[in-house]
């Protein structure tokens, strides 16, 4: 018998369940369980050299998320990436119990529109 690590959802038995959807974590499956996802479009003003943030309110208290930015030209990037056609950077993400803060630097000289897509994942512990 192989050794496994299993954490079942509330009301499910980690020892007897055979349904992958019953688990928060299972060492034989490599998929995060997404509990909330969404996207928001923002029009962000020029920041000069300063870093600023926009806030996405969430209904989930988990503090683990994947966040991506869809730049105005259609390119998609993770934190630390730049729009390929202008001087706009998606710099970092901070998460608390009710908000996802997406930081950016906008050196385009005007407003810039971008969409932030997030996936909040269930924490196994």
In short:
The chain has 125 residues and is mostly beta strands. The protein has strands at residues 6-8, 23-26, 34-44, 52-57, 65-70, 76-77, 81-82, 88-95, 99-106, 112-121.
How are the SSEs placed, and which strands pair?
Layout: E1 6-8, E2 23-26, E3 34-44, E4 52-57, E5 65-70, E6 76-77, E7 81-82, E8 88-95, E9 99-106, E10 112-121
Antiparallel strand pairs: 1-2, 3-10, 4-9, 5-6, 5-10, 7-8, 8-9
Structure description:
The chain is mainly beta and 125 residues long. It has two domains: 1-31, no CATH class; 33-121, Immunoglobulin-like (Sandwich). The protein contains no helices and ten strands. The strands form three sheets. A four-stranded antiparallel beta sheet has the order 3-10-5-6, with no helix packed on it. The protein has a four-stranded antiparallel beta sheet with strand order 4-9-8-7, with no helix packed on it.
| Nearest-integer average pLDDT | 88
Total of helices: 0
SS class: mainly beta
CATH architecture of the largest domain: Sandwich
Kindly provide the name of the CATH class of the largest domain: Mainly Beta
Find the count of extended strands (DSSP E, 2+ residues): 10
Through-space gap between termini: 25 Å
Proportion of strand residues: over 45%
Key words describing this protein structure:
four-stranded antiparallel sheet, Immunoglobulin-like, elongated, mainly beta, 125 residues
């Amino acid at each position: 018998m192989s050794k496994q690590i299993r954490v079942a959802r509330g009301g499910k038995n980690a020892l007897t369940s055979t349904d992958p959807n019953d688990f928060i974590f299972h060492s034989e499956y490599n998929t995060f369980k997404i509990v909330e996802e969404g996207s928001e479009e923002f029009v962000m003003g020029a920041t000069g050299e300063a870093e600023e943030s926009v806030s996405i309110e969430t209904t989930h208290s988990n503090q683990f998320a994947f966040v991506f930015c869809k730049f105005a030209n259609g390119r998609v990037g993770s934190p630390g990436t730049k729009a390929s056609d202008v001087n706009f950077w998606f710099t970092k993400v901070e998460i608390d119990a009710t908000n996802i803060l997406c930081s950016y630097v906008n050196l385009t000289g005007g407003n810039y529109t971008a969409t932030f897509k997030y996936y909040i994942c269930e924490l196994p512990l």
